[in-house]
Amino acid sequence: MTETVSGSATRGGKRKGLKMKRIFTKPGVHPYDEITWERRDVVMTNWRDGSINFEQRGVEFPESWSVNAANIVTTKYFRGAVGTPQREWSLKQLVDRVVGMYTRTAVENGYFATDEDVEIFDHELKHALVNQVFAFNSPVWFNVGTQSPQQVSACFILAVDDTMESILDWYKEEGVIFKGGSGSGVNLSRIRSSKELLSSGGTASGPVSFMRGADASAGTIKSGGATRRAAKMVVLDVDHPDIEEFIETKAREEDKVRALRDAGFDMDLGGKDIVSVQYQNANNSVRVSDEFMRAVDKGGKFSLRARLTGEVIEQVDAKDLFRKMAKAAWECADPGVQYDDTINDWHTSPETGRITASNPCSEYLHLDNSSCNLASINLMKFLKDDNSFDIQNFVKLTELIITAMDVSITFADFPTEKIGETTRAYRQLGIGYANLGALLMATGHAYDSDGGRAVAGAITSLMTGVSYRRSAELAAVVGPYDGYARNADAHKRVMRKHAGANDSLRTIGTMDAKIHTEASKQWSDCLRLGEKNGYRNAQASLLAPTGTIGLMMDCDTTGIEPDLALVKFKKLVGGGSMQIVNQTIPRALKQLGYQQEQIEAIVEYIGEHGHVVDAPGLKREHYEVFDCAMGERAIAPMGHVRMMAAAQPFLSGAISKTVNLPESATIEDIEQVYMEGWRMGLKALAVYRDNCKVGQPLSAAGKKEAAAGVEAQEPEVKVIEVNRPTRRRMPNQRPSTTTRFTVGGAKGYMTASSYPDDGLGEVFLKMSKQGSTLAGVMDAFSVAMSIGLQYGVPLETYVSKFVNMRFEPAGMTDDPDVRMATSVMDYIFRRLALDHLPYDERAALGIFSAAERTAQQRGEDPAVDREELAQSAPIEAKAVEPAAPAPARETKELTLESHQRFTADAPLCMTCGTKMRPAGSCYVCEGCGSTSGCS
């Protein structure tokens, strides 16, 4: 973005500072003047009842920005009370507020050589932001330039010692960070185990017991916020005597949830009884050592040691302990792993202290009581029309971002004095990128391929090499970080390790070869300047999940992730949405050599089926280019691990990413992922097996026995007589209800008839035109279901089988009680359940009316006296009047899932109700931009 060189010391009136050169901007022309701006209305509605919960009309954004990006920025980042003159209404105001603070601070602290350099910095930064070339993390947009504390960091690491005062400080500090909308991580390994004695002679409580208090505090504070999952990480060392209890903590709670749900308690998301479940507000990770992993690999005993004396308290079988970790992760996705020796081998400041913990998403790893501010580059902005990568502008943009991020530490405020002191002394930065998955697909690279990994490794190496080279240049102007002198040898050793990894990078094609050549030059300059000047920043790069800011930049993919699906939904001005095939697909097909007619046919096929299998004219060897995180052709778990391993040697920190495994994955599969992550040099790793969380219809008991290797005893064979069911025919006259409905634009009628005394006995369905295939299938299904009901099949059985069935048509309905449906079947059986099943049975299935959902949100008893309603309502045929359509965004994730052929096991956004999607090891809501972790 900018071409810069270090200024020389003051000589002949010249001041010391950086020199800047324009790249995208022009002298005398403001970057805003080169953009076409337009006014829009942003209206957000309540997902529960359709009422308007946010409205700001006439906001101003570039014409190129999507509706979704503009909506998210308006609702999340514009400051000032809505409806007052103080409220921001233009992206220009937002960017001016933020960049103005950066520019003023840079001038006050002597970063630039001349006033012209200041103007170039200001203009280039504004150009990059309004053109979605990169974005700072969310706290910058929330706070910088406002009357609030100038909080710029999204990631924090705390420290807890083995004293009650320290533990209580932990609770308080965590609460302050949560209240500010950020997340923190902590290692509890200094706290004595429950197997050790206190000075008073009693037994210590152990860290797991103190986790209960912190979990309750986090749950209480976040309940007033916008996310369901707290942004919090808890780490315990593998040699802690309470490690087994820590490993199994969340898995036991999942067992509790299943038992309570089976007993009739409301354990659904937001349910009134779910608060009884503990430890759900944090991600848990075990900090494993090389010693432990070698013991697992070779087989042998491993020692658990006292916290104060280091003496061996117990010896365990390393393989057994490792299996318990994998088994717990198989059951509930926790714990993840952090590889302690690898992390500290790449530590730039070991003389100050070890790295013991991470932020909630595991990408920030540095000193205790420290923080990191993030920024992410939109890689697709550097893909030229000829599919080459714009290396020089990428280099210059990286220079610009590192300069700005370092400036922000100078003016930033911090939640605690200790964090402020450490961060100002070590100036940790976290530059990263988004849209890697889209970039690879657009250039014809499969995500899980040597070529794809070579591109990712080369880009990451270039980014970090430029960042540290710029950090050395900044050190010449404004000095190295305060802790550099005592850590200089270690810091330079890590720089050599990065450069050595770059030398070992194996290139595959022209694209990555050219990037690698530039990366080698940057690392050479970095080492030379660092030897002379030192470094301004102890840390420079990591890969964050880029949840909200990824949406702000209109990125197709987040962080290092592959594409989630080939079909997406685009919001339209004025409301509504349309389904589109990813725009990277035609570009990829063209890159692979397909003609326009072939491209159109393949894109049409993908739009209809959601995948490329059997697409007309598409060669099978090209299928892998279009593999996604989930769906028909999901990337194999080790494909994710290998991609992480390709980028990790070129990052100061780590990578926020979850390795997704299919529901059929075994405990051994997770053991392999954890072991290979260690062998490949990763710093941290988390897994998620589809549907491992509570909410799946199958009982987990049978799965657990099979997973643990417990074989069921062969049952004794007995011959018993079974009474054949008899049909209970409907009388000639019976009460019935007719419901007119619309699902995803498809209209239909349902007539449900009941026995005069009790129970549903007949259903007729009318869809589409008489004689159509759909109408015939529905007629046949109606007859089959009616016969089943008359033979005694409970309605509850039908509901449990057909609710959540996914196929088109799907989406928005006109029923106020069932706003969204994943298929016509899903709607029909939700409506039948609401009309004919008692509350307790529906609650067990997670089916509630609009009134019941509203009552739940108010904390009231949502149970409805069905008998009273029945007595007050006439027993005759009636039609349900259509309600106002639900907001278009409510259908997005569910309809998307129907194309992906999978159920996204993710929480609902508590702000707008849309199902969130994975973003690194966290989640992001595409409806409103809320995240469950770093953004």
UniProtKB/TrEMBL annotation:
Its EC number is 1.17.4.1. Belongs to the ribonucleoside diphosphate reductase class-2 family. Residues 731-834 form the TSCPD domain. This is Vitamin B12-dependent ribonucleotide reductase. SUPFAM superfamilies: PFL-like glycyl radical enzymes. It catalyses: a 2'-deoxyribonucleoside 5'-diphosphate + [thioredoxin]-disulfide + H2O = a ribonucleoside 5'-diphosphate + [thioredoxin]-dithiol. Its cofactor is adenosylcob(III)alamin. Keywords: Cobalamin, Cobalt, Disulfide bond, DNA synthesis, Nucleotide-binding, Oxidoreductase. The keyword Nucleotide-binding applies. Residues 858-869 have a biased composition (Basic and acidic residues). It comes from the Bacteria. GO terms for molecular function: ribonucleoside-diphosphate reductase activity, thioredoxin disulfide as acceptor. Residues 42-132 form the Ribonucleotide reductase class II vitamin B12-dependent N-terminal domain. InterPro entries: RdRp_reductase_class-2, RNR_2_N, RNR_lg_C, RNR_NrdJ/NrdZ, TSCPD_dom. Residues 856-876 are annotated as: Disordered.
